[in-house]
C-alpha cells in the first residue's frame, strides 16, 4: 500500500537553469525499521538552500504555481553536472506523526507517535524515515521538534570534536546563526571556551545578551587584534567556519599564530610549534578558500560534515547527544522561526528572496498541511 | 676551552634588505651528549634557502668578500619581522669529524668518528651537535653522508605517514627533486604506489628511467585527466606538496574527487565520502594556497614538518629509519651534487644565482675547508 503526496524537488538543467517544483509522488510502504511520517513542520536550513537557491538569480526567476525556474551561474551549473536532469528531493529534517511502520521492533514502537526525523526529503506531505534516527517528541509539538537534528547535533559535534582533540576552547565564525546561538549556550553549560566572530554590532549584542564572553566584530578596524586577544584569553586553537570561501579561516589561523609566536623566545623559520586547526563546515561563500603562508607548518584545515562524524562516534555517543537535545528542546536547543509557510508559499518570490538571505534570526518553518 | 671558526648567518633588516655573511664565532666546549664536529661537507637544501635567498633580489645585491646585502621584497621582510636585526645561523645538516665530546656516554662513543649531524648551523667551520641525532658514517665519506638526514628522513616519513593513515599509494608534487627521486626509490622498495607530478618532459624521463610507474606532466594540456587516471590506477588519496602556494594541492584534491565521484551512484551535494588529504611540506611558491569548493567536505590540507613527525614517531622508529638510511647511503639515499663550493665561494654572485634556482639535479655541496 503506497501513499501519495507532494514532494519538493530541485533539478539542475544543462541550459544553466535550476527548477524547483512540487511533484506528486508515491511514498512506498515502510519496511523493516522504516516509518512513514506525515510531515507537520520542517525548517529551511542553510544546508537545504544549497540545492534550492545557491548560484541562482531569484530576482529574474520565473515563478509559477508550484514551480520556479531560476537562471543559475554557469560555473555553479557546471560544478553540479552530476545532477543535471536528475530531480533531487529536498529538506533534511522535520517532524510529524508516524502513520505507518515497518515490522521492525523500533519502527513498530514509534507507531502513532510524533517524532523528529532526518529523511533527506522533508519538504513534502510525507517522509519515509529511518526509525533509528527518529526522536520521539513526547508532549513536544512538531514545531518544537522540527529543527532538533541538524543544528543541535552539529553544535554538539563541535564540542565533542574539540574535547576528543584535546581542546578546551574553540572559535566559531558567523556565530550569530541559529547554530551559533546553540553553540554559545552549550559552551557555557559545558565550560568550553568560545570565541564568537560576528559581522554586525547587533549580532554581538545578541550573543552577549545570551551570555557570550568573547565576541569579536569582523567589521571592526582592529578585528585581527581583537581576535588575537580573545585567542590569548581562551587558548582557542581550533575553529569552525561555515563561510568557507575567502579569508575567514586564514584570518583565524593567522591570529592563532600571532598569539603563539608572541610566546616564542627565538624566531623559527617554520613558525610556532602550536598546532592550529580550522574545520570548514559550510560554504556561505562560494569563492575559493585562501590560505596565506603566514603560520608556518603546524596547521590543518579540514572539511567537516555531521554524518561521518556520527558514524565514527558510534551509537552510544549518538544516543547520548540525542537525549541531551530532547532534554533541552525548549531551552538550549530551541529554534526561533521568523514565519511559517506551506509548500506552495515556500515557492513564492517574496518567500524565496527572504529566506535565501539566511539573515540572523529569520529562519523559515515549512508546515505542509 | 672554546674553538673559533667561521659561521654563516642571515640577518633580516628593517630597511628591506637581508644580509648574508660569514662571522667569526666561538663554538663552546660540548657538554653532556653534545659533540663538536669539524664540518667537512654540507648540502644546500631548499629548506636552507628560505633564510638565505627567499624574496631577495640576487641580481642587484651587493657582493663583497664574505658578505652579501640583498634587497628583499617588503612583504617578505615584514612577514619575518620577528627576526629583524637578529642574525640567524644557517645550514640544517652536514657531516664531519667529531673533535670534542661532552662527558655523556653517546657523545664519548663518537669521539674521533666521522658523523652526519643536524646542528641547524652546518654552514661553518664547526658545529655543535646532539649526539643522539648523529649518524656514525663508518667508512663512508663526509660527502656521502652530508645529506643523510633532511631528504632521506623526510621521504621515509612520507611513507611512514601514509602507512599510519591507512594508505598504500601517494601523490608527490615537484617529484623530480633530490627528495622526490629518493621517494621514488623507497616506494618501489616498499611496494607503495606513487604518482609523480613533474613539470618538464626531461624530469618525467629521469623518473621513468629510475623505475617510476606513474609520472604526470603538469604542463600537459590533459594534465588533470592524466592525474585522475593515475589516481584511479593507484588509489592515491594522500599527497605531499612542496610547492604550497597556488593550485597544486587544489588540483590534486579535485582529481581525487573526480575519481571518487565517478564511482558514486547518486549525486551528493556534500561530495564523495572518500577522504582526501594533502600535506604541504614546503613553500616553493610563496603565493597563497587556493582551495576551490570542488570536492565536498571529506578533505584535509595540513602542513607537514619532519621534526614534529619524528618527535611523535618516537626513538625506535627514528632508529629504524636512520639505520635504513645508513644501509642505503650510496644507493637508495644517494644524493648527486652539481658542484662543491667553500664558504667564501658560496657567497659569490655566480654561485648564489645558480643554487637559488633549485634546479633539478643541481644541488650544491658546501665544503668549508
Keywords for this entry:
Rossmann fold, 20 strands, alpha/beta, 2 domains, 6-stranded parallel sheet, 12 helices, Quinone Oxidoreductase, Chain A, domain 1, 7-stranded mixed sheet, 369 residues
CATH homology-level superfamily of the largest domain in chain A:
Medium-chain alcohol dehydrogenases, catalytic domain
Oligomer state equals: homodimer
The CATH architecture category of the largest domain in chain A equals: Alpha-Beta Complex
Low-confidence stretches of chain A: none
CATH topology of the largest domain in chain A: Quinone Oxidoreductase, Chain A, domain 1
User: Largest interface, counted with CB-CB under 8 A?
Assistant: A-B, 40 and 40 residues
Give the overall pLDDT of chain A as a whole number. 95
How far the N terminus sits from the C terminus of chain A, by CA atoms, comes to 22 Å
Question: How many separate structural domains of chain A?
Answer: 2
Number of separate helices of chain A:
12
Helix content of chain A: 25-40%
Rg from alpha-carbon coordinates of chain A: 22 Å
Largest β sheet strand count, sense and barrel closure of chain A: 7 strands, mixed
Which of globular, elongated, flat, extended, rod-shaped describes the shape of chain A? globular
What structural category characterises the helix and strand content of chain A? alpha/beta
CATH class categorisation of the largest domain in chain A:
Alpha Beta
The proportion of strand residues of chain A reads: 25-35%
For the secondary structure, the number of strands of chain A is: 20
Amino acid at each position: 500500500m503506497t501513499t501519495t503526496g507532494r514532494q519538493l524537488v530541485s533539478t539542475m538543467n544543462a541550459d544553466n537553469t535550476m527548477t524547483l517544483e512540487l511533484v506528486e509522488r508515491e511514498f512506498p510502504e515502510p519496511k523493516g525499521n522504516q516509518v512513514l511520517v506525515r510531515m507537520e513542520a520542517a525548517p529551511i536550513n542553510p544546508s537545504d538552500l544549497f540545492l534550492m537557491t545557491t548560484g541562482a538569480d531569484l530576482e529574474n526567476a520565473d515563478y509559477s504555481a508550484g514551480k520556479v525556474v531560476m537562471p543559475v551561474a554557469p560555473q555553479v551549473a557546471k560544478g553540479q553536472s552530476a545532477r543535471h536532469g536528475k530531480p533531487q528531493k529536498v529538506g533534511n529534517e522535520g517532524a510529524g506523526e508516524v502513520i505507518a511502520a515497518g515490522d521492525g521492533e523500533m519502527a513498530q514502537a514509534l507507531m502513532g507517535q510524533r517524532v523528529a526525523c532526518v529523511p533527506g526529503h522533508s519538504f513534502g506531505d510525507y517522509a519515509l524515515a529511518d526509525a533509528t534516527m527518529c526522536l520521539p517528541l513526547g508532549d513536544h509539538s512538531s514545531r518544537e521538534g522540527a529543527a532538533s537534528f541538524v543544528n543541535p547535533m552539529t553544535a554538539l559535534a563541535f564540542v565533542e570534536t574539540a574535547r576528543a582533540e584535546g581542546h578546551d576552547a574553540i572559535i566559531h565564525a558567523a556565530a550569530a546563526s541559529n547554530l551559533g546561538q546553540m553553540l554559545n549556550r552549550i559552551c557555557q553549560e559545558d565550560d568550553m571556551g568560545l570565541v564568537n566572530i560576528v559581522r554586525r554590532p547587533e549580532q554581538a549584542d545578541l550573543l552577549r545578551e545570551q551570555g557570550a564572553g568573547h565576541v569579536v566584530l569582523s567589521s571592526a578596524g582592529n578585528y585581527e587584534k581583537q581576535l588575537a586577544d580573545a585567542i590569548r584569553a581562551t587558548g582557542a586553537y581550533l575553529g569552525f567556519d561555515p563561510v568557507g570561501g575567502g579569508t575567514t579561516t586564514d584570518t583565524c589561523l593567522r591570529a592563532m599564530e600571532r598569539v603563539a609566536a608572541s610566546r616564542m623566545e627565538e624566531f623559527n623559520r617554520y613558525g610556532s610549534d602550536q598546532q592550529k586547526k580550522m574545520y570548514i563546515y559550510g560554504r556561505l561563500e562560494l569563492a575559493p578558500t585562501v590560505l596565506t603562508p603566514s603560520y608556518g607548518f603546524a596547521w590543518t584545515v579540514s572539511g567537516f560534515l555531521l554524518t561521518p562524524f556520527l558514524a565514527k562516534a558510534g551509537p552510544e555517543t549518538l544516543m547520548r547527544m540525542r537525549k541531551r537535545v530532547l532534554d533541552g528542546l525548549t531551552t538550549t536547543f530551541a529554534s526561533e522561526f521568523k514565519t511559517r509557510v506551506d509548500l506552495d508559499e515556500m515557492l513564492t518570490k517574496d518567500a524565496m528572496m527572504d529566506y535565501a538571505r539566511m539573515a540572523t534570526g529569520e529562519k523559515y518553518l515549512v508546515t505542509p498541511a
